[in-house]
Design a protein that fits this description.
CATH architecture: 3-Layer(bba) Sandwich
CATH topology: Glucose Oxidase, domain 1
Helix content: under 10%
Shape: globular
Structural class: mainly beta
CATH class: Alpha Beta
Number of strands: 14
Order of helices and strands: EEEEEEEEEHEHEEEE
Strand order of the largest sheet: 1-2-14-12-6-8-10-11-5-13
Number of domains: 1
CATH superfamily: Putative cyclase
Distance between the termini: 31 Å
Amino acid sequence: MSGAERGMGNGGAPHATGSRGRVIHDITPPISPALAVFPGDVPLRREMRQDMRRGDRLTLSTLHATVHLGAHADAPSHYGADAPTIDERPIDLYLGPCRVLRVAVGRGERIGHSALPEELGAERVLFATGSYPDPTRFNDDFSALAPGLIAELRRRGVRLVGIDTPSVDPADSKELPTHQACLEHDMAILEGLALGGVPDGLYELIALPLKLAGFDGSPVRALLRTR
């Protein structure tokens, strides 16, 4: 069985049944050295300082990696000078009612506000594009979000936007207009989500970033729970 079939890729998110029959979808790709990062960024490396298999009394690991790893939250300081860092963001942005929208969009194209339904029903919207199917292989033709979409989402009361690709902007974007639109409209960002096995609909999102003081982002363990 391949990594994607086990839920490594966006093609299938593992799920479990919780209390009262509520289903939990894990939309986090596994974090391992195989996980691709943006070209030039720092991939995961695990340093084993101590290892019980070598006869040490305990196992002790050090993690070296970009904070923009797999499913992660961007802080405004990632794309705005003197903007808030990830520890300064309100934690409730990443916890609460959420809408998953599967959109038909071509590789390399941006999603516009015409893709939105009349009613969203939540302050958080995650876009499933299917354009980044294997997080162990970086493909630079993934889909992205249009800056005008961010303005329309904010007008409708949305506070967080997420996507199943490494970025809300195209891979070759230099000006990052969608990131800048998120900065202008104070929109929280989640990237690198694994939404392949999640049906469209309303959920509870749980995707808490680490309280990394002064950092421009953080990995998250992203979950969706049926309401």
